[in-house]
């Protein structure tokens, strides 16, 4: 059974900051957001976690293996190097959507995202070492079948993008509704999901659902391990097997 | 009338690179993609352009004001600092979707995105100085009405994300189909669009369409200028007026 | 005759910032300083200039080709993305040391580096286009003869470092005293100098001086052009000729 | 008694890479070097270590607390995100200069820095947990007395720089020769040293030596702990005490 530790990282007072005293140059905001995310990816990844950019002012990270101190270090490091600060809220639950729900509530209770007085909250309790198992994380790595042949080398890039975006939107909604799982577009034609204890038929069902709903063909590799990094790497290898075997679903265990 | 110069920047052979000789750590790929995009944002922004991350291995940039040499410099700079190279294709057209179409075709004619021999193509012709006018770019900056009150401070972050994603997916499709325009999610609850010569009623119609289709409420500020930076900044100020006036559509000119 | 435009970039109030409210983590300060410098290098380099890290809180840049607006853009971009701001002062003179002197005075007149009220000064006048010539910049690229064979592959890394540091210290002092030129260590065993109108015998004399004073053997390639980038690249190619010919001084023109 | 673990990080084949097929743009090399160092600072700092830029193609890091796996992770992460790779060699010794000597030899035995076939060596043995104590690291943080008043706000920036460089050169040599310690300029007017078990009189003696030799006045705060981060932070606080008390040497324990 999975047991997901989600740390929601929210930039404090970001909306107002981007327009005070005047609206700031968009190219600089994009650079700031992307680099802050890139740094969070390294800080979390250095300890076997995963980080997803989601909305950029709200980053969703999987931090099984990081203790409270490690989360505080992320905050301190960002505050030392960026013109903004971040609040972090940790939630733990067998169901990823519930873990994120607990994390969201922790932040909301501490104060509004645009409350200029709310700064650098650190809320929630990480999993204790004794409670961790080798099945805590289940990570699925989806990609679109033959995207390059079908889309990238044929269509207008924006129409390729629209197709992939539709596929992602449908996948993200179904995985959340039917499987309590969180899915994130990670570039190219790839989506990585933090899953509940789904089995092979659940993945086949999900792939069929997306094909029927929006006519986008997916395949998926799945991994299961103690940390997001290990589970995710197992999922990448399983996806390679899909490519070699021509299969749609491969589990790494 | 608008005249949009789009430069499509595509990382050469990226899919194979990410899995050769073995799949690479996801947190490192995310860091690489985000920082490469952040750098492109600065390189383009330094000359009044705009850059959108789109799919990260394919970046869509608006480069009115950059000549061929300036595009080549972007390529050289990336090749000197990253473990990958990029091909760039320029397209120009009054309709943004057509400009991107021309750019896409330029790349496709040069070879597949996964052709290991295709490297650092530079294709297409930028607008000559004589052909540029102060109305070349029309940039629209959309955001979700009261997102923080309605979503961020109330819902589970993922459900907020799903709502915003749905709003974006519907907006991006409608703007492309009905108005030949390109829309990009840029973080938070914001979408920036590179528009054709849309007028106030076109924006009202678009906002109603999205409300009817997915029940997401948008407002928009629009700017028009010689460069993306100028038009985009005018759009940001117009959006501030929406916030002050309680209006849904404000044009900066 | 040379005509050097130096822009001195000084981080406002940095000393106090690094220790307020508490001393900040050294690894974060190093990351901040290095990345801010890396960004300045790109912003200046995007317009054919050069940037040297010098003391990191004071960066020395060569900005022939950048107008006042371009300098202001550097300030704005840094202020949008870093937790500190920077003041910039421009000085122009045939002698590099005098150009930097003028730039330094411009900043000092505006207020102390640790004056918490002094923020984002932009002082001084860039060269006007009409006054620019193809001989404005003379850039010299020195390196240590056979450093890898003699030092890196033989000695303790710190003793190699001490040797190179001694060589640099002597070169920097002599070039300033005897030739009004500014020299900067740029990594490895390389030093780049912004020179006055030195000729071949001046470079031979300098190399002998350093050999006699600290027993370090240098060779040098020199370039001359309208911008730092062009002159510097010519110098690099001239240094390659030294390597091929076994000579100690090569001029690119 | 101190017990220093030094990991020397050397970029493989860098000299040839910077000039092949042609010399690369200096501003891009500077950006690459600085960012790679900034990342190493974060990777090492994330585990309580310290990193010094030294010559940029050779980085000296203090890695007490990092095991072999953690060093390998640094290599993998750099290889995934930069166009170069790095070899790492670990040395441990009570005397910092000897630890670096052991690390240097480890690399030299594996092959030349410019051997195109030598890639990603990982050599040497980290301290085992059982052998670590709370006195393993002694870090000293020097700065120049009244540098801003005496230099920055009065002199030409380059002459300030020359003074600080002379002070550093003398300090680095004396600390190595007389105290087997490694000193690194870290920006501004600051030098951080990785020390052997020096006592208060050793620091006073060192400060007098530098004053007599080059007429530069230093003060110093010193810390002692299990990791570089802890010892370094204690040193920073001790330096603050110097500022408050007007003293020249303060020990944190």
Provide a count of the helices of chain A. 8
Q: Which structural class should the secondary elements of chain A be placed in?
A: alpha+beta
Q: Rg of chain A from C-alpha positions?
A: 19 Å
β-strand percent of chain A reads 15-25%
Report the CATH topology name of the largest domain in chain A. Answer: Alpha-Beta Plaits
- Uncertain regions spanning at least 5 consecutive residues of chain A: none
Order of strands across the biggest sheet of chain A? Answer: 2-3-1-4-5
What is the name of the CATH superfamily of the largest domain in chain A? Nucleotide cyclase, GGDEF domain
Could you tell me which chain pair has the largest interface and how many residues each side has?
A-B, 74 and 74 residues
Number of domains of chain A: 2
The average pLDDT score of chain A comes to: 95
Oligomer: homotetramer
Number of strands of chain A: 10
CATH class of the largest domain in chain A equals Alpha Beta
- Separation of termini of chain A? 14 Å
For the record, the CATH architecture of the largest domain in chain A stands as 2-Layer Sandwich
Helix content of chain A: 40-55%
Secondary-structure element pattern of chain A, one letter each: EHHEEHEHEEHHEEHEHE
């Amino acid at each position: 059974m999975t047991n997901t530790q989600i740390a929601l990282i929210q930039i404090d007072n970001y909306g107002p900051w981007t327009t005070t005293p005047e609206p700031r140059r968009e190219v600089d905001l994009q650079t700031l957001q992307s680099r802050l995310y890139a740094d969070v990816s390294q800080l979390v990844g250095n300890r076997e976690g995963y980080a997803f950019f989601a909305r950029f002012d709200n980053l969703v990270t999987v931090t099984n293996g990081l203790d409270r101190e490690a989360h505080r270090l992320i905050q301190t490091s960002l505050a030392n190097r960026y013109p903004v600060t971040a609040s972090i809220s940790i939630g733990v639950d067998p169901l990823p959507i519930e873990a994120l729900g607990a994390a969201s509530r922790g932040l909301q209770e501490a104060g509004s995202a645009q409350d200029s007085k709310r700064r650098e909250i650190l809320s929630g309790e990480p999993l204790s070492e004794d409670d961790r198992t080798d099945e805590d994380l289940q990570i699925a790595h989806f990609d679109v079948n033959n995207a390059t042949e079908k889309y990238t080398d044929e269509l207008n890039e924006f129409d390729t993008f629209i197709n992939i975006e539709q596929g992602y939107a449908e996948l993200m909604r179904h995985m959340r509704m039917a499987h309590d799982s969180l899915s994130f577009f990670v570039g190219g034609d790839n989506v990585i999901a933090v899953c509940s204890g789904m089995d092979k038929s659940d993945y086949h069902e999900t792939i069929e659902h997306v094909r029927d709903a929006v006519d986008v063909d997916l395949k998926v590799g799945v991994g299961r391990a103690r940390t997001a990094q290990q589970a995710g790497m197992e999922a990448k290898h399983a996806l390679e097997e899909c490519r070699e075997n021509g299969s749609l679903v491969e589990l790494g265990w």
